TrEMBL record:
Keyword match Lipid metabolism: yes
Pathway membership, UniProt: Lipid metabolism; fatty acid biosynthesis
Complex and partners: Homodimer.
Family named by the database record: Belongs to the thiolase-like superfamily. FabH family.
Reactions the enzyme catalyzes: malonyl-[ACP] + acetyl-CoA + H(+) = 3-oxobutanoyl-[ACP] + CO2 + CoA
The protein, known as: Beta-ketoacyl-[acyl-carrier-protein] synthase III
Active site: C118, H251, N281
Entry's free-text remark on domains: The last Arg residue of the ACP-binding site is essential for the weak association between ACP/AcpP and FabH.
Upper taxonomic lineage: Bacteria, Pseudomonadati, Pseudomonadota, Betaproteobacteria, Burkholderiales
Length: 324
């Protein structure tokens, strides 16, 4: 088989949904001031889901994986590769992918995590595509799953209103027809400081701040430019143009970044898949979550050409162009 192709999508959100107004009321009780109006106007976010304390990344991911397998008409025993994109793993080690594999009730296949923060899913999908095309795998599960609520500083209104928890998954199979057409990945480590969780485990204790820190304006400025570049590079590799894109499915961080990217690519806003309003920023989970919502709502159909785009901490960014 020359290509890899997505044969099923799935997602899962923890049941607890928190609206902006509910979050604002909770924050007000600790002296942190925000409002539904501010959050909607600056970000487009209206609500997010938060996992209960006992629920882990692999718990969310395994539900999304089961839903994707069902959509693909596959069983867990058909899977020969599991890649989990996450920055909020269950443990320091082993990987969330191995824990998820066991929860799926299978053993033996390769399983590992990819850490590229909000670009994690486009990174993981690119790795899986390469492994399928070279014959290392025939039926891969590629999952983005996060519990970002665990690393939020609820005393910092500039970040805690932006993120949510969730998971999305795809089944990627060997195919004689494409499939994934092209991808383009990048990183620039000099931007560590603008978006990071600097703390680490050392000598049996957490050293440094274990909560998310972000310079929102610096991230914003970098994001729109690199997303346009990655999209154009991916189209060029595939011999396609903007006009070939049926749906733009960007990382769901901020509606203004997403609209800015669509505008630069001269795409009408009705080709943009938007779920940030309902999910907030779920980091590596946001793209497969948005894809699954668009598939199940009947927006994205078989044969459509999709541009997936991620940007996040690292700084990392990238894009994948595919025929669904
Ligand atoms: N509620 C009310 N007021 C707030 C809040 C809040 N939640 N947060 C900040 N403010 C205030 C600020 O204190 C500031 O007040 P001041 O003018 O009195 O100082 C004012 O609002 C404006 O703040 P800015 O930071 O200038 O707001 P901006 O319009 O830049 O929006 C935002 C901030 C939403 C964070 C924006 O910069 C953004 O979306 N950046 C990109 C973030 C992003 O995409 N991150 C994800 C990358 S993915 C990953 O890897 C995790």
């Amino acid at each position: 088989n020359k290509y890899s192709r997505i044969t099923g999508t799935g997602s899962f959100l923890p049941p607890k949904r928190v609206t902006n107004a509910e979050l604002a009321a909770q924050l007000a009780a600790t002296g942190v001031e925000t409002s539904d109006e501010w959050i909607v106007e600056r970000t487009g976010i209206r609500a997010r889901h938060f996992a209960e304390p006992e629920v882990s990344t692999s718990d969310l991911g395994v539900q999304a994986a089961r839903n994707a397998l069902e959509a693909a008409g596959r069983k867990p025993s058909d899977v020969d590769l599991i890649i989990v994109a996450t920055s909020t793993p269950d443990m320091v080690f082993p990987s969330s992918a191995t824990i998820l594999q066991n929860k799926l009730g299978i053993a033996g296949c390769a399983a590992f995590d990819v850490q590229a923060v909000c670009s994690g899913f486009v990174y993981a999908l690119t790795v899986a595509d390469a492994m399928v095309r070279t014959g290392s795998a025939k039926c891969a599960l590629v999952i983005g799953a996060e519990v970002f609520s665990r690393i939020l500083d609820f005393g910092d209104r500039t970040t805690c209103v932006l993120f949510g928890d969730g998971a999305g998954a795809v089944v990627l199979e060997a195919s004689d027809t494409p499939g994934i057409l092209a991808s383009d990945l990048h990183a620039d480590g000099k931007h560590v400081e603008i978006l990071c969780v600097p703390g680490t485990v050392f000598g049996g204790k957490v050293h440094g701040n274990p909560l998310l820190r972000m310079d929102g304006q610096a991230v914003f400025k970098l994001a729109v430019g690199v997303l346009e570049e990655a999209a154009r590079a991916t189209l060029a590799k595939a011999g396609k143009t903007e006009a070939d894109i049926d749906w733009l499915i960007p990382h769901q961080a901020n509606i203004r970044i997403m609209q800015g990217t669509a505008k630069k690519l001269k795409l009408p806003m009705d080709k943009l898949v938007v779920t940030v309003d309902q999910h907030g920023n779920t980091s590596a989970a946001s793209i497969p979550l948005a894809l699954d919502v668009a598939v199940r709502s009947g927006k994205v159909r078989k044969g459509d050409t999709l541009m997936l785009e991620g940007v996040g901490g690292g700084f990392t960014w990238g894009a994948v162009l595919l025929d669904f």
